[in-house]
Amino acid sequence: MRFISCFLCMLYVSTMYAEVIYTNIWALHLNCTPEQINKIAKKHGFHNLGKVLWFAQQSGRSRKRRHSFTVPTDPFFNQQWYLSEAFDQNVVAAWARGYTGKGVVVSILDDGLDTSHPDIAENYDPQASYDMNDNDPNPDTQYTLTRPKRHGTRCAGVVAAVANNGVCGVGVAYQAKIGGVRMLDGQVTDLIEAMSLNLNQQHIDIYSSSWGPEDLGTNLEGPNTLAQEAFIRGITNGRGGLGSIYVWASGNGGASFDNCNCDGYTNSIYTLSVGSTTERGTLPFYSEPCSAILTTTYSGGSFHHRSIVTTDLHQSCTSDHTGTSASAPLAAGIIALALEANPTLNWRDVQHLVVRASRPVDLRTHDWRTNGVGRRVSHYYGYGLLDAGRLVELASKWKAVKPKRKCTIDLITRAMWNVTACHGTRNWIRSLEHIQARLTLTYSRRGDLSITLISPKKTISNLLTTRPYDKMSTGFSDWTFMSTHCWDEDPCGYWVLRIENNGDSTNRGVLLKFHLELHGTDERMAGRRMERAVIQQCAVGNSDGSCEGRQQHQPYPEFILNKNRNSTCDNK
């Protein structure tokens, strides 16, 4: 046997001595003339590699992968079906890569936290905690018999319950640090919300919120002045300028036919809105749709569906946590795994990665559509079930997205317009992220309206669906609807706004203002999608597939304020 180096040789001998198992390989260091070595080697039947200055028989040595993984031993782990390899959330796959949330800090903005719970205490982080209701550093839950405040403790356990400690189950990011902000157990003010959203923003990475306006199908409410400013400060200054990550439950108003675009927290571009699916991939009864939902994680459904296992009050455990209140902290924990894989991700990077790591798999609903860059998207599920294994894989090699650009188009009552995405300016956008449509609209019965936005690539965003319990006659006053359905599309070309009355023909209204804001980047993000997809090009395009300087085929204009779908107003 001959090697490149003349200083190594193998002798085929098998030996066992004491507890050491030796192989049949010897290493030798040789330094003499080739003739001498040939003579010795030939005599003993060896291969000539040179004079022996040093030799050693090679013993077998134990070596393990640094990312080796052992299934958690917690007593409730076998009930945590949503973490198992049999389900498409692929959390175990992320753990097997060595990601468990180490070095990442998550704070639960809620009604308090049982900081002494044996499945939380080891991961509890006082620097990620505060009692905003009583203005002190202790966020501990205030126990009452009539109104037990268990919500925050349950959400915290979903994220970071300690592994392998013989207690309850395990959190998605079981080595992340977890804190709690007690801010819902009392009168909630704009100031309390703002302080909670900006608490210790250089220390906390992810803020998880499973709350919002009441899910009655009648409300139209969002953050006030201070909370709005807090979101902006968070994404601008948080995490050393990378931006705080705000994960938000999309809402539980499905039984009331609510739409989460009427919730100004869920439909903010600064929050990452999370929907729910059952273990069978069906829609839970509480799911409400909107075009702002980005992704989905598992949760419970009706009585015949399993729910989420987590920590509970009085140092106990529960297997009954459900709703989008369970889905949001699940997503927060998965994102914590991604931040461990790549701590340099900014808040927009995280949203880009979530879009790419979410998959329709077997999620069942009637409204799956393919958008202009070939991705399947739903108003109930966003881009699908969040795949933790894929998210950490993509995160580990992700290149930061270019700075955000915003292109603003002011319109009055036009229902169709040609957008060149601020072509030729510093705000020129080649790839969309969020779309915001701000409307001022009077209407005699607000709940009868549906509003649809159609992109140049024919992607349909249902900005508003009918809400039968909403009988308000106030309409919308500078209300912002949001869509993520056109992610990575080129915005240039003709857009269509469609407003439709689905109620009585006597309903009347006037569109007073329409303001479109396109958010994105000048990079062609579809070029680094890391997934197979069909890229739909412009109807009339350039040789490179772009539509810069070109017009697309003009789509039909629709601006409907009459129950008769064939009766349209003049496009003036």
UniProtKB/TrEMBL annotation:
Q: Where are the transmembrane segments?
A: none
Q: Which GO terms describe its biological process?
A: peptide hormone processing
Q: Where is the composition biased (Polar residues)?
A: 130-141
Pfam family membership, one: P_proprotein
What region holds the P/Homo B domain? 391-524
Kindly list the GO CC terms recorded for this protein.
Golgi membrane; trans-Golgi network
Q: Where is this region: Disordered?
A: 121-141
Keyword line: Cleavage on pair of basic residues, Disulfide bond, Glycoprotein, Hydrolase, Protease, Serine protease, Signal, Zymogen
Q: Which InterPro entries match?
A: Galactose-bd-like_sf, Kexin/furin, P_dom, Peptidase_S8/S53_dom, Peptidase_S8/S53_dom_sf, Peptidase_S8_Asp-AS, Peptidase_S8_His-AS, Peptidase_S8_Ser-AS
- Please name the catalytic residues of this protein: D110, H151, S325
What would be an example GO MF term here?
serine-type endopeptidase activity
- Residues spanning the signal sequence: 1-18
Regarding protein family, the annotation reads: Belongs to the peptidase S8 family.
The name of this protein is P/Homo B domain-containing protein
Organism phylogeny: Eukaryota, Metazoa, Chordata, Craniata, Vertebrata
